[in-house]
């Protein structure tokens, strides 16, 4: 589907959270949305089929030119009620084995919280929104959280196609989740857009005692596929905001093409900003 | 904490719930009397028209396990295979299966006090055993996420591992199509069947989703996989399951269609994909679904006629279409 720049979420600021609140139908917002629906052309930041480059994972670089049906220049079209302001929206997907911490990472990013033992297994596919300020622009990330169990891939991979970015997670305390990264990359190669922004994350680095995948191993694998690599902890929050911010910056940079702005490089950014011993410094 | 051990959410509407419960308690009392009489008269519950009518009006909690076991055929299998469950658990382990199940133990009902590690007894152990035994029993399915929630409910209701195992076998082995096997073909088929039914009965909603290119998976996969657990209120889920065990998987379509039809105007306000997803989440809460007795009456009236012949034909068509896509 298309992400409309003028897409109007009739949701209050906690929109996209999973709370099944039923009090969202305020007449004002309803009216606003109806008046706009259909009158503004949908624009998408989704890379189109042009620029068909060889499908290989790790092409985390902007395409040579904006797709023909690319996003409009942001013009604050989306200022809307409910506090959900944004200039441009992107879809980000979280993928990786069951139990590596996808939902926890997302909740840490969204709400700044880590509540051990309150998460249920994600079944199917779910999403949360978060609006970030990236160099003065409001970037809305629509983050899709997926079930990690292998058999669910055939249910969720249909959504890869629409993702602008994928965060591929493994658990540094679980060797199998690391060994499965290649299988995930194959899946991504088959179903995602060729120029999807892709980042590898080693999660749960707070559990130093139980760690079985060394940082160098993560870095080596990431390098092999030309991916940026970061080590995160949803528990302590280390590098969580950074990972999502890096994605947002990369996506924004790709479509803005402001000549005066220096070219944004995801790899360099990640290296420069990565905190502590957890980030790649290769 | 509710009668099943679930903590009430912070924003729980006690006033609305009390109002509902006052009326529902009268229903429950009346039904309990009728069921006592029925069960005294009929030692072995057979699937008669009377039983069907009774089940649709709700099985009292104290008889629920017994009736589920009887009408689903689980009781008969359990009696034919007396020590089978124990043998499965004493047999050779399967590390991959155990690991997959263990990953979800802490992530099954963290909001239920009986599943806490500190609970005595802690139902996590029972959950592990039931899922492991089932995975060993049906190796074609093994363990699929979603089964943890179903087995969890079965354990809460039966308070017996062995009975939960045989009920899980009735559900996954006979009542439901192959939702949980690695290809999840049954799930994909039934999602398409629901889409077809919505196209037939609620074309405006179907047009909205089709227009936005929304795959039905996105909004309803959990309804099928979790059989409404953690989607609808507990009492409502149990009322649905009463019919599921007695009448089969058709009830899932009835519930889905009722939810969509009741909120058709609300859903049609959606102007984007996230909007649609959000609306589909919102229609599963509130007084309409909490008032389980009225809800179940609507489930059998609102969607209109829905014959098994139609379902079977649609399932076959969708199967052919899905296999052709591969």
TrEMBL record, chain A:
SMART domains reported for this sequence: ARF, RAB, RAN, RAS, RHO
Any one biological process term the GO annotation gives: regulated exocytosis
Residue numbers spanned by region Disordered: 1-77
Biased composition (Basic and acidic residues): 1-12
Needed cofactors: Mg(2+)
Low complexity bias (residue ranges): 49-63
A Pfam family the protein falls into: Ras
Reaction(s) catalysed by this chain's protein: GTP + H2O = GDP + phosphate + H(+)
UniProt record similarity statement: Belongs to the small GTPase superfamily. Rab family.
Gene Ontology terms, MF aspect: G protein activity; GMP binding; GTP binding; metal ion binding
EC number: 3.6.5.2
Organism placement in taxonomy: Eukaryota, Metazoa, Chordata, Craniata, Vertebrata
GO CC annotation terms, alphabetical: Golgi membrane; secretory granule membrane; synaptic vesicle membrane
Matches recorded under InterPro entries: P-loop_NTPase, Small_GTP-bd, Small_GTPase
Protein name per its UniProtKB record: small monomeric GTPase
Keywords from the named record: GTP-binding, Hydrolase, Lipoprotein, Magnesium, Metal-binding, Nucleotide-binding, Prenylation, Protein transport, Transport
TrEMBL record, chain B:
Chain segments annotated as transmembrane: none
SMART domains: TBC
Record-annotated Rab-GAP TBC domain positions: 58-248
Cited Pfam families: RabGAP-TBC
UniProt KW keywords: GTPase activation
InterPro entries to which the protein is assigned, alphabetical: Rab-GAP-TBC_dom (IPR000195), Rab-GAP_TBC_sf (IPR035969), Rab_GAP_TBC_domain (IPR050302)
Listed PANTHER family: GROWTH HORMONE-REGULATED TBC PROTEIN 1, RAB GTPASE-ACTIVATING PROTEIN 1-LIKE
Role, per record: May act as a GTPase-activating protein for Rab family protein(s).
Protein name: Growth hormone-regulated TBC protein 1
Lineage per the UniProt record: Eukaryota, Metazoa, Chordata, Craniata, Vertebrata
Gene that encodes the chain: GRTP1
């Amino acid at each position: 589907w298309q992400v409309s720049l003028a897409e109007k979420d009739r949701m209050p600021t906690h929109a996209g959270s999973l709370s099944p609140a039923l009090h969202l139908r305020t007449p004002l917002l309803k009216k606003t949305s109806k008046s706009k629906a259909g009158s503004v052309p949908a624009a998408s930041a989704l890379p189109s089929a042009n620029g068909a480059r060889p499908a290989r994972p790790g092409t985390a670089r902007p395409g040579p030119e904006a797709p023909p049906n690319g996003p409009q220049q942001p013009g604050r079209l989306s200022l809307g009620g409910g506090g959900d302001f944004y200039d441009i929206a992107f879809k980000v997907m979280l993928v990786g084995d069951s139990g590596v911490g996808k939902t926890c990472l997302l909740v840490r990013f969204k709400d700044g919280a880590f509540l051990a033992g309150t998460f249920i297994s994600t079944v199917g596919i779910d999403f949360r929104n978060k609006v970030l300020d990236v160099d003065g622009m409001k970037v809305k990330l629509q983050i899709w959280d997926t079930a990690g169990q292998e058999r669910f891939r055939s249910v969720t991979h249909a959504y890869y196609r629409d993702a602008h970015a994928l965060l591929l997670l493994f658990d540094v305390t679980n060797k199998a989740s690391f060994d499965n990264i290649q299988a995930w990359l194959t899946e991504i190669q088959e179903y995602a857009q060729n120029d999807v922004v892709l980042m590898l994350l080693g999660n749960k680095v707070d559990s130093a005692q139980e760690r079985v995948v060394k940082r160098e191993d993560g870095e080596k694998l990431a390098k092999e596929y030309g991916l940026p690599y970061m080590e995160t902890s949803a528990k302590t929050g280390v590098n969580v905001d950074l990972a999502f911010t890096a994605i947002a910056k990369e996506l924004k940079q790709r479509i803005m093409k402001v000549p005066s702005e220096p070219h944004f490089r995801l790899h360099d950014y990640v290296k420069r900003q990565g905190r502590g011993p957890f980030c790649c410094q290769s | 904490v509710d009668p099943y051990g679930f903590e009430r959410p912070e924003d729980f509407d006690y006033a609305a719930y009390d109002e509902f419960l006052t009326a529902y308690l009268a229903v429950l009392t009346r039904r309990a009397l009728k069921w006592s009489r029925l069960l005294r008269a009929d030692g072995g519950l057979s699937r008669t028209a009377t039983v069907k009518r009774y089940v649709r009006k709700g099985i009292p909690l104290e008889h629920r396990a017994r009736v589920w076991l009887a009408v689903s055929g689980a009781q008969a299998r359990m009696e034919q295979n007396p020590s089978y469950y124990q043998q499965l658990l004493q047999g050779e382990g399967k590390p991959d299966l155990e690991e997959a199940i263990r990953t979800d133990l802490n992530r099954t009902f963290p909001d239920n006090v009986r599943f806490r590690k500190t609970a005595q007894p802690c139902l996590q152990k029972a959950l592990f055993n039931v899922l492991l035994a089932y995975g060993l029993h049906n190796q074609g399915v093994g363990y699929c996420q979603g089964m943890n929630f179903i087995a969890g409910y079965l354990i809460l209701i039966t308070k017996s591992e062995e009975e939960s195992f045989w009920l899980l076998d009735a559900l996954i082995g006979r009542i439901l199509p192959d939702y949980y096997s690695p290809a999840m073909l049954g799930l994909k088929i039934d999602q398409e069947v629901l889409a077809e039914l919505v196209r037939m009965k609620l074309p405006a909603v179907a047009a909205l989703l089709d227009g936005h290119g929304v795959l039905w998976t996105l909004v309803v996969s959990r309804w099928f996989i979790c059989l409404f657990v953690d989607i609808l209120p507990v009492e409502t889920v149990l009322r649905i399951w009463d019919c599921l065990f007695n009448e089969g998987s058709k009830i899932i379509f009835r519930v889905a269609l009722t939810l969509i039809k009741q909120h058709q105007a609300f859903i049609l306000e959606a102007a984007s994909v996230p909007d649609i997803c959000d609306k589909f989440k919102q229609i599963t809460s509130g007084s309409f679904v909490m008032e389980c007795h009225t809800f179940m009456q609507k489930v059998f009236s609102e969607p209109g006629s829905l014959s098994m012949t139609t379902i079977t034909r649609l399932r076959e068509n969708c199967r052919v279409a899905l296999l052709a896509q591969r």
